Amino acid sequence: MTITDGRKELIEIAEQMYKDSVNLESIKKIDLENLFEIRHELNGTQYDVIFAFGILYHLSNPREVIGELANYCKNIFLMEAIVGSFAGVGQIVSERQDYNQALKLGSRISVMEMVSTMKMYFEYVYFPIQPVHSDFSNLLEGTFPARIFLRSE
């Protein structure tokens, strides 16, 4: 298992939280905006499951990051992201500089763009029914932001 984050302060929190249960060398600071850094830090490691929860909308290059992470995925890629109701990747937003926001610029990717990007790397892409919960907007109404989960094998 490898735990990643782009911020040093969040890596330190993870190290404190998991110091008794996880090999601390498996916690890595990786700037996902930097594809070279991903390649260097992961160094060809293959993972049974990649779980990308809430990261893509903090990136200016979500399609490239999906493609890069796909190189390290043996079986299942689980992803949650805020998406837009428009075509392509858009609405690059400057996020506040809190510890839990983008390192640079964030973006929003459309559902169709995310599915087509995932299909470039995985044979099966699933777009499940969204949970009935106030945190999840109705995608059919085109509300923004909406959240989705995708599973690929």
Fold and architecture overview:
The chain has 153 residues and is of the alpha/beta class. It contains four helices and eight strands; from the N terminus they run βαβαβαβββαββ. The chain has helices at residues 8-18, 35-42, 62-70, 111-121, and strands at residues 3-5, 27-29, 47-53, 73-84, 89-94, 105-110, 125-126, 146-152. Strands 3, 4, 5, 6, 7 and 8 form a six-stranded mixed sheet that branches. Strands 1-2 form a two-stranded parallel ribbon. Helix 3 links the parallel strand 3 (47-53) and strand 4 (73-84). Helix 3 runs parallel beside helix 4. The longest helix is centred in the first third of the chain and has 11 residues, at 8-18. The two termini are 18 Å apart. The mean pLDDT is 75.
Indicate the topology:
Elements: E1 3-5, H1 8-18, E2 27-29, H2 35-42, E3 47-53, H3 62-70, E4 73-84, E5 89-94, E6 105-110, H4 111-121, E7 125-126, E8 146-152
Parallel strand pairs: 1-2, 3-4, 4-6
Antiparallel strand pairs: 4-8, 5-6, 7-8
Helix pairs in contact: 3-4
Brief account:
The protein has 153 residues and is α/β, with parallel strands linked by helices.
Keywords for this entry:
single chain; 153 residues; alpha/beta; six-stranded mixed β-sheet; two-stranded parallel sheet; 25% helix; 30% strand
Sheet-strand content, in percent, reads 25-35%
Compressed to H and E, one letter per element, the order equals EHEHEHEEEHEE
- Contiguous low-pLDDT stretches (5 residues minimum) are none
The radius of gyration computed from the alpha-carbon positions, rounded to a whole number of angstroms, is 16 Å
Report mean pLDDT, rounded to a whole number: 75
Based on secondary structure, the structural category is alpha/beta
> Which sheet architecture does the biggest sheet show?
6 strands, mixed
What is the percent of helical residues?
Answer: 25-40%
CA-to-CA gap between the ends?
18 Å
What is the β-strand count? 8
Give me the number of helical elements. 4
Indicate the overall shape.
Answer: globular
